[in-house]
Amino acid sequence: MTVHNFQPTHYHTNIGPHAPVLRVQSGDTIVTTTVDAGGQDASGKQITPRGNPMTGPFYVEGAEPGDTLVVRLDKLTPNRPTGWTRKMLAPNVVDPDYVTQLPWPGKDESTLAIWNIDNAAGTATLDDTTTSLGTFTLPLAPMVGCFGVAPARGEAISTATSAQHGGNMDYRGFVEGVTVYFPVLTEGALFHIGDGHALQGDGEIVSTGIEISFDVQVTLSVQKGKRIGWPRGENADYIFTVGNARPLDQCVQHATTEMLRWLQTDFGLDPVGANILMGQCVEYDLGNIFDPACTMVCKVPKRVLR
Amino acid sequence: MTVHNFQPTHYHTNIGPHAPVLRVQSGDTIVTTTVDAGGQDASGKQITPRGNPMTGPFYVEGAEPGDTLVVRLDKLTPNRPTGWTRKMLAPNVVDPDYVTQLPWPGKDESTLAIWNIDNAAGTATLDDTTTSLGTFTLPLAPMVGCFGVAPARGEAISTATSAQHGGNMDYRGFVEGVTVYFPVLTEGALFHIGDGHALQGDGEIVSTGIEISFDVQVTLSVQKGKRIGWPRGENADYIFTVGNARPLDQCVQHATTEMLRWLQTDFGLDPVGANILMGQCVEYDLGNIFDPACTMVCKVPKRVLR
Amino acid sequence: MTVHNFQPTHYHTNIGPHAPVLRVQSGDTIVTTTVDAGGQDASGKQITPRGNPMTGPFYVEGAEPGDTLVVRLDKLTPNRPTGWTRKMLAPNVVDPDYVTQLPWPGKDESTLAIWNIDNAAGTATLDDTTTSLGTFTLPLAPMVGCFGVAPARGEAISTATSAQHGGNMDYRGFVEGVTVYFPVLTEGALFHIGDGHALQGDGEIVSTGIEISFDVQVTLSVQKGKRIGWPRGENADYIFTVGNARPLDQCVQHATTEMLRWLQTDFGLDPVGANILMGQCVEYDLGNIFDPACTMVCKVPKRVLR
Amino acid sequence: MTVHNFQPTHYHTNIGPHAPVLRVQSGDTIVTTTVDAGGQDASGKQITPRGNPMTGPFYVEGAEPGDTLVVRLDKLTPNRPTGWTRKMLAPNVVDPDYVTQLPWPGKDESTLAIWNIDNAAGTATLDDTTTSLGTFTLPLAPMVGCFGVAPARGEAISTATSAQHGGNMDYRGFVEGVTVYFPVLTEGALFHIGDGHALQGDGEIVSTGIEISFDVQVTLSVQKGKRIGWPRGENADYIFTVGNARPLDQCVQHATTEMLRWLQTDFGLDPVGANILMGQCVEYDLGNIFDPACTMVCKVPKRVLR
User: Fold this and answer.
1) What is the pLDDT of residue A174?
2) Contact status of C139 with chain A (Cβ, < 8 Å)
3) For residue D1, what pLDDT band results from cuts at 50, 70 and 90?
């Protein structure tokens, strides 16, 4: 179990079969950094073009299509004193006839709000007291917006969107301590990560969380011969599955089907038992609703399993 | 503030401009009962045809289109020892190519599971130990699946679905203690209620919660001249708005727009402030995803308001 | 086969179990008139509130749930010299971020364009030469926007939308000479008709066709014991089925399933034959895309049947 | 204007920034071949893996992001005596509760139907007289299912789906004689083409047209500085725009917005004129509805322009 300290020198704005920046063994830990969605690093300098630039990819020895990549999110820490959000909801999340009433910025007005991040206090504070919010402080809840593995059949998919391979899911449940499972779709899995948020509302409906660069530590391992269809995860209280598609109804179909399968293959449930349990115990969370593809997460509490 | 004890003698399977069963003053409390979704009462006897039969409608004196009806859910108590659920997920909530793998019941097999309800212990226990779930017990969380007011322009809308007037929203957040706001769309508001669930998973994905008859107490009052677009609600921790439509993306649009309006009219927020706050603080819950119309709930925590 | 001349005295803006204005025998013909979507009659006078007011309902003796109502559209003739359209696309048919670029009318500007209708010449000409269209003339193609039968379980559904019972489908294929089939959902079928268009583009994307009052002749008959699920129709070249729902993908599902059933029950096709034929011969038309519910029409050419 | 005869030696199952197989000048013509969706060539031999393998990419000198690539489909000719289709509708195009009633093939049954192609007679005849269709012959209508240019930001998008760059649109209007316009998104445009159909129903609802290898002739040219957002095209009677997304409603939004822009930039229409014209003259066609992304085509008849 080696710990690799990796300092990125370039980034990718799609997740695909790029040349690996590092090869690791199953079980190894990687300590690295990510730039923010706009390409700015810990010093606030723009070092790569905008659009959710990814650190990686990391090649995991022995990972082959048909396996599962296990990603433990060991540490996710904002590493600079400010982050930014947009100030207007995405037009596609309001009623079409309300779009003209959104606060469209004037020609020379900034579309961004700056937030001061205080890791010690665990807070983000809006650096603008001119809105009706006044001094507005929220608790930090750092999460990773975009991560995953290279897709199948040589695809390279924009980090603006998401699919079976993961991608820009913007699910606020992807926090420190969570374990995430991705289907391995190409040799070495080719893990990418980026787009850290100091905190975020459901759906990323202003088209950003509080965008910020991160110090990241992840541990990658391979489950050989374990075939899954969509990203999965677990935290202390829940197992969950992730459907990435559009519209949301299809996300629900993907995530629900994946959970039905999981309950039957790994938790000893017969079909009727799995259906009854899901019917009365399932919970759904909304990930991204702003992107081309959206995300719905299907959760089952661990307390009802076994 | 009068308390009315009302014993229903007939029920409606659509919400519309039916003859009122009782006229009450704004602020009055109604103590009554509801049958279950299948038309069975507290004794388990089928006394009216199936399909979410409604108790009511109740006419609230002084309520006119352009007002808001305030419904306080004072008491929601299952009033018999058993409830029932379906045993197979609705085909529309799984991937189309998985539909054939659902546990379709054999010709003479029951599609229903029976649950024993223990109000004292606060539990529902599956009355069938033959599935892999074995003895399976869940905590009660009684909620009302279908309620609302008569729609506009003389419509009478099936209790299988939902819209601006409320209806079959199947949101597990509609529990005892919650206050719900409906737009008054016709004279007297004409409040209907029914379809109690002893508990339910998100989405009502097996097409039922644990269906059961209820003892119900609600307090109805009118906010004159308060015009809202969609159902709203509040509990101890959140204010929330409810979008009923299909697909889910459109529910999100309705609920989000309604919340934007509410924050600006009642919570002193300017447009930019409301947009920034929603972007980082909003949460969404899934109500019904099985019906013709689905439900998404947009929530803002009270702690970030003011 | 009686011909009834019926002069309406009141109208309905929902399709439901209203008192019949006339009772006819199966096979009878009705000659009547419809007002335009705004409630204006042949003289241009507003005689009833706006919102697709319906003429009817007509009770057909012997029609019962489980039967089919056959509606032959014998004559559909605009009966006044002007019609009107809106001048801006509905915000929901363009990209959300384009909505602000639509030509929103100024405060005191009319949202309507007037068209001169010449039945003899068979033309509609825009009565406004100030736009870049100059003198703009189109061929008439009169069609009925909204018609159908009373829904099941006592529902009364707004004429703004559509469902199994028909309603506001706005399909430009509903022209003179076409035969339409509706499922009978309540006793007497209760046929309603209105919302004539001198012509219309697909989708009714400006939220109107050329709205105009009509002289109408229809012949109604009952097919006893013929059970269908969605509106069907036929013209000289095609049989077709109509799916009314939202989103469009679900309209396609409804219409396609209904066609699959029809091919197997009435055209002697086995399941594999019906599937192969539809795969290579099916055509789809778009009806309304502006309403709460949209419409897709599934067509099979008669030349490939038998 | 050079004519290049190009014989492919390898194929791609995604459209992306692959090494060009040929560099041509703007205005040049390419004569080449395509394999069928399954990777089979003119002799029926499988020479490359299945999944809509593309011939190309062809690099057009001088094409840069912000330009438009003009593709004239000069010749599209099936070049072998048989093609194939599937025999069952895709489960996602029928009602979810009808899925189990589709004619699922038995374990050892073929899912494919073979069709005999007669270019001289212009017919395709089902090579199976055991279904209720008997001897079943349809007129040929050769079209190209999947073609387009490399996407932006280095993406490589599966030929199973479609987006701004084109891709698997399966629109039966892409026939010989049609001119198609693609936004150039990367240097050289990198044009790919494949997936020929001898004929196809709307929507590709059995998940195939009659799949067959083609002799292809296309002429490629560049419009410098002409920026478009989505694929466009024109034939003798119509100009049209193509929206590729999911659900269909969003395809309509993309295609409609693109047409609104086109009418205003190239056909001398002011915003109100463009809106009025589209409202009453627009037509929509359905391309693919089976894929992850679907396709809707927005058409305006040339006779109403100018």
Assistant:
1) 98
2) no
3) confident
The radius of gyration computed from the CA coordinates of chain C, to the nearest angstrom, equals 19
CATH class of C232-304: alpha beta
* Averaged confidence pLDDT in chain A: 97
DSSP of chain D: --EEE---S--BSEESSPPPSEEE-TT-EEEEEE--TTSB-TTS-B-S-SS-PEEEEEEETT--TTSEEEEEEEEEEE-SSEEEEESS--GGGS-GGGGGGS-PPPTT--SEEEEEEETTTTEEEES--SSTT-S-EEE---EEEEEEEPPSTT-BEETTSEETTEEE---TT-BTT-EEEEE--STT--EEEEEEES---GGGTTS-SSB--EEEEEEEEEETT---SS-EEE-SSEEEEEEEESSHHHHHHHHHHHHHHHHHHHS---HHHHHHHHHHH-EEEE---SSSSEEEEEEEEGGG--
Instruction: Select the residue of C13, C155, C246 nearest B14 (Cβ to Cβ).
Output: C155
Quickly list H helices, chain B.
248-266, 271-281
Q: Can you name the residues that pair with A175 across neighbouring β-strands? A: A143
pLDDT at C290: 86
ipTM exceeds 0.85? yes
Question: Between C98, C126, C280, which is nearest D201 by CB?
Answer: C280
Q: Where are the domains of chain C?
A: 3-81+140-223, 232-304
pLDDT at B290 over 90: no
Which residues have CB under 8 Å from B2's CB, separation 6+? B24, B25, B28, B29
Residue C184 CA to residue C182 CA, distance in Å, equals 6
Question: pLDDT per residue over D231-282, tens digit each?
Answer: 999 999 999 999 999 999 999 999 999 999 999 999 999 999 999 999 999 9
Extract long-range pairs of A96-99: CB within 8 Å, 24+ residues apart: A96/B253, A96/C90, A96/C91, A96/C92, A96/C96, A96/C99, A97/C91, A97/C92, A97/C99, A98/B257, A98/B260, A99/C91, A99/C96, A99/C97, A99/C99, A99/C100
Contact B253 A95 (CB under 8 A): yes
Residue B189 reports pLDDT greater than 80 = yes
Which one is the CATH code of D3-81+140-223: 1.10.1140.10, 2.60.120.580, 3.30.70.100, 3.20.20.70? 2.60.120.580
Residues C149-165 as b/e (b if ≥16 CB within 10 A, e otherwise) read bbbbbbbbbbbbbbbbb
pLDDT at residue number A228: 98
Interface probe for B, chosen from D86, D88, D99 (most Cβ of B below 10 Å), is D99
Chain C nearest-CA distance from A99, in A, is: 7
- B184 within 8 A of B67, measured Cβ to Cβ: yes
How many Cβ atoms from other residues are within 10 Å of residue B139's Cβ? 10
- CATH tag, B3-80+143-223: 2.60.120.580
- pLDDT tens digits for range B129-147: 999 999 999 999 999 999 9
Q: Which residues pair with C112 in a beta bridge?
A: C86
3-state secondary structure of B65: coil
DSSP string, A60-84: ETT--TTSEEEEEEEEEEE-SSEEE
pLDDT 10s digits, C227-249: 999 999 999 999 999 999 999 99
Buried-state track B110-121, b at ≥16 Cβ within 10 A, e below 16: eeebebebeeee
- Confidence class for position D126, pLDDT limits 50, 70, 90: very high
- A291: confidence class by pLDDT, cuts 50, 70, 90: confident
Token pair recorded at residue A72: 């433990």
Let me know: does A243 contact A210? Beta carbons within 8 Å.
no
Q: Which among D156, D247, D250 has the least Cβ separation from residue A155?
A: D156
**CB pairs < 8 Å spanning A and B:** 193
